[in-house]
Amino acid sequence: MHPSADKPPACVILAAGQGTRMKSSLPKPLHRVCGRTMLDHVLGTVAQVGAELTVVVVGVGAEQLVAAIGDRASTCEQAEQLGTGHAVMCAGAALEDFSGDVLVTYADVPLVTAETLSRLLAHHREAGAAATVLTAIVDDPLRYGRIVRDASGRFLAIVEHNDATAEQRAICEINTGICVFEASALQDALARIGNDNAKGEYYLTDAFGVLVAGGRMVEAIAIGDPDEAMGVNTRVELAAAERIARDRVRERLMLEGVTLIDPPSTFIDADVSVGGDTVIGPGCQLLGQTTVGQGCEIRGYVVLRDAVVGDRVLLRDHTVVDTGTVGDETQLGPFALVRGGSVVERGCKLGSSAEINRTRLGEGTKMQHFSYLGDATVGRNCNIGAGVITCNYDGHDKHPTVLEDDVFVGSDSILIAPVTVGAGAFTAAGSVITHDVPAGALGVARAKQTDLEGWAVKRRKQWEGRDRR
User: Model pTM?
Assistant: First the structure.
């Protein structure tokens, strides 16, 4: 039995590199894959494995990385980037009092799963190894370090591409960079590695050769899906990781009972949740922390960003909900826009091209097409006619509009905020409401109609003989 078999591991995440090939002012680990930063993916995976202690080694962009990490892990700085072995040395102080297994992974390897890391740890402990390397067997090893084994298949060493012979470069088993050490073995090996190589760096991979030379057992276990070990160094590789991550999300949701009419055209972020029997049309985007309930119908090209959508909701084509909440059994769109933290309560209807911003619609309220409400509080069972708008901005400040329960706002009414329309009141179509309307009253604010007899006949005579273009 491995001495640390029942003890949660520690984890070191290497995130100090320059990332020059990304051609970006943003630190590489903070680039996003499927809506999460790569660092977020790795921190989340490590948390699932149950790490007792997580240390992120930062360097380039340290201030941004530390802010992004928050209290989810401790950090240490690798001020000068002298290789992966040196990076782990920088984490030594944080691991000084730790006894157990130390998992080492990278902030630019976002696709590895908790299941794979758990399998790596289990193999390491069952074998009683001093260290265990996660490998991958690939058709094209590119510039990855090669796994060198003896004739019986036992691990001997990892040779970096730049230092490999032609024979070693032909090896198709590569180092993923992810590994686990028994803590004391790691400390001993790091104290003995050097930097006599093409780059003059301290390679963590040399620690395995040191352990083998000292008669310690080093194991190597191949990953099931090599895509998990994909390191992201360029925007091209970032896009490749994005495709894989999104495929995983789509597959998971479909297996959980969600219908995707055209999966490849449907973009769903990693943190999105969708209830069973919901149908999602082509071209939709479900982004950020969006949650969607059960039995919804989301038609084509809908965008949900940090949205909360209830059960049995109909979102017609091209509807957008951006940081808003939509209650059960509502109907929105087409081309409706809910934004600014607005809330649409149960059973509401928003017509085509209707927009609300920082507004709450009470249960059962209907808001017809080509209407806009900003900074409004609307009661239950109201009817907002077509073309109704609130004038909530006076050029300097924004003001509220209040519609109490059972209000009927006639088409093309303009509500000049601040204004309140009392319960059960009406406003006449085409009115410009500048003062409060009492409960149960009819607010009329429009000019009296005047008909000029014969005007149209005279006008047409003036046009006679003209080229009307």
Answer: 0.90
* CA dihedral angle for residue 238, residue 242, residue 245, residue 250, rounded to 10 degrees: 180
User: Any catalytic annotation for residue 2?
Assistant: no
pLDDT digits (tens, 9 = 90+) for 295-310: 999 999 999 999 999 9
Angle at the Cα of 194 (from 157 to 172), degrees rounded to 5?
25
Q: How far is CA 454 from CA 152, 204, 457, 459, 460, in A?
A: 107, 95, 5, 9, 10
Contact 91, 77 (CB under 8 A): no
Q: Read off the pLDDT band of 142 (50, 70, 90).
A: confident
| From the candidate CATH numbers 3.20.20.70, 1.20.120.50, 2.160.10.10, 1.10.260.40, the one assigned to the domain spanning 252-443 | 2.160.10.10
- Structure token pair of residue 27: 């630190």
**The CATH number of the domain covering residues in 10-229:** 3.90.550.10
Sorted by sequence, the CB contacts under 8 Å of residue 268 that are 6+ apart come out as 246, 249, 250, 253, 274, 285, 286
Q: Which residues pair with 403 in a beta bridge?
A: 378, 421
Set 369, 396, 399, 435: catalytic member: 369
Q: How confident is the model at residue 391 (pLDDT cuts 50, 70, 90)?
A: very high
Instruction: Dump pLDDT digits (tens) for 420-430.
Output: 999 999 999 99
Domain range summary for the chain, segments of one domain joined by +: 10-229, 252-443
Round to whole Å and give the CA distance between 17 and 14. Answer: 8
| Distances from the Cα of 443 to the Cα of 58, 377, 428, angstroms | 64, 18, 6
What are the φ/ψ torsions at residue 313 (nearest 5 degrees)? Answer: -95, 140
